[in-house]
Here is the input.
Amino acid sequence: MSFRFNEAVFGDNSFNERIREKLSTALNSPSKKKLDILKSGIKVQKVDFPTIPQLEILDLDIITQPKSLAKGICKISCKDAMLRIQTVIESNLLLINEQDTPSFTMPQLINNGSFTIPITMTFSSIELEAITNIFVKNPGIGISFNDVDLDFKFDCSVKILQSTIERRLKESMHVVFKDVLPSLIFNTSQNWFTNRGESTSTIPGKREHHHQQTTMSRNVILDGSDFQELSPINMLRLSSIVSSRSTLSLHSTVMNSLSAIPGCLERQNLYRFISRMPSLNNYYSSQSFPQPKSSTVSSKQLVKPFYCSHNLLPKTVLDSSQYDLATITKIQSRLFDRSNSNDDNAKPRRRKIKCKKTRTPSNLQSQGEQAVDDSTAIETVTSTPVQTPIPELEEQSPPYLKTTVSIRDKYVIPEKISLNLDSKKDTSKKKPFYFIGLNSQEPSNNWKWGMEDSPPPYH
Amino acid sequence: MLPYMDQVLRAFYQSTHWSTQNSYEDITATSRTLLDFRIPSAIHLQISNKSTPNTFNSLDFSTRSRINGSLSYLYSDAQQLEKFMRNSTDIPLQDATETYRQLQPNLNYSVSSGNTLSSDNTTVDNDKKLLHDSKFVKKSLYYGRMYYPSSDLEAMIIKRLSPQTQFMLKGVSSFKESLNVLTCYFQRDSHRNLQEWIFSTSDLLCGYRVLHNFLTTPSKFNTSLYNNSSLSLGAEFWLGLVSLSPGCSTTLRYYTHSTNTGRPLTLTLSWNPLFGHISSTYSAKTGTNSTFCAKYDFNLYSIESNLSFGCEFWQKKHHLLETNKNNNDKLEPISDELVDINPNSRATKLLHENVPDLNSAVNDIPSTLDIPVHKQKLLNDLTYAFSSSLRKIDEERSTIEKFDNKINSSIFTSVWKLSTSLRDKTLKLLWEGKWRGFLISAGTELVFTRGFQESLSDDEKNDNAISISATDTENGNIPVFPAKFGIQFQYST
Here is the structure.
């Protein structure tokens, strides 16, 4: 199956003109009940989509059900768009009220004339990112917007109303994406399916426009002739996918990439995907970090299945001070977010250990002894029975910068983190060091991937 | 024409001595009636009658696209209501229609009581007595109206609670639009101030209106001793609680008579501080048979302006004038009574309380025999000394009285009303008259469409030249078209 995305439609300015035309006719449609407050039609002054809207197909499924043609998940994004509309409103609300109520009960007001204000509303730098489910069926196209991220700057010529209008707009956006847009798209697509190939419009001005729609619609349904127009590269790819499936080989067809199709994951590449899930060692591996030969973490461990790999940082990473504490904390919180799929508001419980220096005179004697003392002190503070910190001594590191990171109760293998701090400065100031860990994570928690806030770095 | 029920309402106010000229709602009534008069928009027929002295019925038909109408009932326990109500054959035209409102300067009754005692006429005394009567009887009015086929209901209750207060309840219930509106008015009239508290269920509208009458003290600049002007200042405040829409306005009204001709003139200036509207009106009764009004609107914020003109031309019954005068008692018994009573009452009312009622004083002096001779002489000397100014007062009063008498006594057969507005480009035309016991009003509203068609032709200029000439000729033929046309018949017994 192939698609043709006609970029030329968006290339020139005619696209913006078309949107402006459609928008102004839709806003001024006579079928809609005109509000009393509006004293003139709504005029769409300017529409500007400087960039081509991006459409990314995340998943596509051709179901063999009788009527449905295709089902897919798409990511639509649109950037830096601009829209300006202008109208005239009645500011005297009492006058509107006076006109609504019968004159018998309405007390007559003196000098209660109409006072109209022209109002211009500008929506600038509109950024839309939405993940949609698309169902192409025979009568029409159904779209549901799942994860909509819309942001725009709003500017109103009447400054008093700006905050109110903005608040109401943001409230109503929910309805627009949930209700208005899907029904609109469905209705227009129904036209495409039913009136295919015939231009039944009566308005001469719109005939050309309508014709464009019908020619576009031809590409929606596959005909036998369409197969001839498919690109050879796509056909080659498709055939390779098919062949890889038919061989039942567990090795992927392409060695260096996760998937043949960008954005799609195949079963035989799952372990790679899992191996790049954000755990501490994976995160490390995703960086192009030159692995030293003498590393305790072998490269073999990276491709190990998830259930046997441990969520730990190699010692070399810590030694070379590639990570600071903030990065580790970030990874940990992301891990927590993934595993904790049920409630979003749960915050990771962190165990903070303050390592305040309570130096006894004996501690000042030698560096090595001090290190041992510190680590044991930590152990006594975090007195969880499962946790088995194995402190390792390192001669080079300053005394109270050696600490352990415990992430999971089960998988904890404590590592030392050597932070790249000036030891002299710290000793002089006696700055307390905060120990941050994450605990009580159940490994059996269901992991979820795809379509989350931060998709896995498998590109 | 005033609808029959409005005439009954007016009679109710008259019989219960409730003055309508003090209401802030009616502060611009003169210019409103001269500029924004209502034009019937269909063929309309109203038949009304007074079934008993206290009940009134009215039946309305109107045909626009289909026949619809209404049925209204009114009951009031006010006494002497029949004295103020007349059927359509007897009612003078100037009472049956809304026209220039002649105001009577408000007198402070507590101050003026000493003067009015000596007055030979008793009408003011009666009014005063009724107002301060301890045996004030609570009067009320009940009104209901049903429209068909839409089956909407209108209801109104007016209750006079005390000599100074009045309560009014108006309600509309529409079955089709599921619209129910109730509006309450509480009015308190202390002659110098009229305060109104209003609450309406539509939009939970709350309102307060106040009108203050400044006492007409003789000013230093006033060369005229006979003070007949009145100055009123009013304001209103509104707040719709649901939509939080505020509204307010303030208005100044000055009413006086021209000293030379005795003709009344009204000036108003109103200002809406929220929306910046300023509107000033000047209305004058230029003669017994003509009235003019000009109104200028201006908006402070948008610099929009509008100029409106309105005028009335009354037509008298020219022939048979002599016979009418002879048979005046027969034809117009109540108007004759009005002619007798009203000028005198007006005279005493117009007279300022600070100026002693010289007319009566002069009359009283010869009749009072117990005054000693030297005092009589002193009085005569005083009268002689101030005779020039007294004569001036008398002259002024007589001119005003003469003019009022002239208007009240003349029998008008019809009136033409015209009004136009420069911005809206409309011309309203209304004819009202009496014909065989029917009160007829017929009118139309013309809209000038020249500007609109010119813009159309400008658009068509791009297409071809032939259409331009075609539209031009059309423009020449029909620059206006009627937006409204209607005729209304009223008959009441």
Q: What stands out?
A: Residues 398 and 423 of chain A are 6 Å apart (CA to CA). Strands of chain A lie at 43-48, 54-61, 68-90, 116-137, 141-156, 350-355, 433-438.
